[in-house]
Design a protein that fits this description.
350 residues; alpha/beta; D-Maltodextrin-Binding Protein, domain 2; six-stranded mixed sheet; five-stranded mixed sheet; 14 helices; 33% helix; globular
Length: 350
């Protein structure tokens, strides 16, 4: 596929040990009851980077509901235009925490002097929770121009270059026998994709939620495939700590995780069958430019908040094949599961 790399940015993420790539971390039991917490005194100041993606939801809900305050954490939310900038900021200790989706940035992190650790899930594409989708213009589907993945030939599709959103469509096209120049992938940015598809400047987009649903609702799109059908349980994002929490102040890292899991639980309850406080959660996310509608798929949230590594090895191999990375790194040093295990002893998730 032809690929526009003039605006390439990389989401920095961290993955787990090589042994985890096939299936994720085993589930830990939830505690029987909540543990009464005593906040840190004096409060610890932390800066949290976000890009207003769905994988930021756990931290934003915890911030809005005062869960960080309950732990004695004085949290400041810092908005970045992309995870590339956020990853650089955590590398020089300008921020302490952020979330990110798997991308080429992971494989170059250590060589760039960026030390981060994956400490929990920030959502996954479990069945019914595909938050990346390929959406094509409805007229292409209705007219029969698109009937199968082989018909992607000659189409121009907006996507994040070298992102999981490009991978899902590139793999679909390759499986149909299309060559590397048969589909034209362009990077427009999520908001611009809606306008481009509406005026037929592109044939569709392979994008993250909530923009995939907006392409359907506002730009006359048809959803073709979502990540939960392509690679069930592929990670939507990881919660990432910088060295200020993994080396300097581990207690603050533990406290952050307790509050974060409470935020994840609220997200899970809001969009699960319970539909608990859904309107409040939607209003919270809207403050950070995440427009959730009744038809927007929600992220899957594991009951134990364990980060999934399903499909990550395959994704990394694709990145190497397209030249986004040169070699696969040793992934073992990039996981620290101690914070999640501690928090699960304090917070009941189910």
């Amino acid at each position: 596929m032809r690929r526009d790399t003039s605006n390439r940015g990389s989401f920095l993420t961290t993955l787990g040990s090589t042994a985890l790539l096939a299936g994720g971390i085993g589930q830990l039991p939830a505690v029987a009851a909540e543990v009464r917490r005593t906040p840190l005194n004096p409060p610890v100041k932390l800066r949290v980077g976000i890009i207003s993606a769905l994988f930021d939801s756990g931290s934003l809900i915890a911030f809005t509901k005062g869960y960080f305050h309950d732990e004695g954490l004085d949290v400041e939310i810092v908005v970045f235009p992309s995870s590339a900038e956020a990853s650089q900021a955590v590398g020089i200790n300008q921020i302490d925490v952020f979330s990110g989706a798997p991308n080429a940035g992971l494989f170059n992190a250590r060589t760039q002097g960026i030390e981060v650790s994956v400490v929990a899930s920030a959502g996954e594409h479990s069945r019914g929770h595909g938050v990346i989708s390929l959406v094509l213009r409805k007229d292409l589907v209705d007219s029969g121009r698109y009937k199968s993945p082989a018909d992607l030939k000659g189409m121009k599709l907006a996507t994040g270059v070298a992102q999981p959103s490009e991978w899902i469509t590139a793999a679909l096209a390759a499986k149909a026998g299309l060559g590397p120049k048969d589909v034209d992938f362009v990077s427009l940015g999520f908001a611009n994709t809606i306008a481009a598809m509406s005026n037929r400047a592109v044939d569709g987009g392979s994008v993250n939620e909530p923009f995939a649903t907006l392409l359907v609702d506002q730009a006359g799109g048809s959803r073709i495939i979502s990540m939960d059908a392509f690679r069930p349980r592929f990670p939507a994002g990881y919660l990432l700590y910088g060295t200020s929490l993994t080396k300097t102040n581990r207690e603050a890292g533990r406290r952050y995780m307790v509050a974060y899991l409470r935020g994840l639980r609220d997200y899970k309850l809001a969009f699960g069958p319970e539909k608990q406080n859904t309107a409040d959660i939607i209003a919270t996310l809207k403050k950070y430019n995440m427009i959730i509608t009744p038809t927007t798929p929600s992220m899957g949230i594991p009951d134990d908040a364990a980060p999934s590594f399903v499909g990550v090895a395959e994704f990394a191999e694709w990145l190497r094949n397209i030249g986004a990375i040169q070699t696969l790194p040793d992934l073992k040093p990039l996981v620290d599961d101690s914070y999640r295990q501690y928090a699960l002893s304090q917070v009941k998730l189910t």
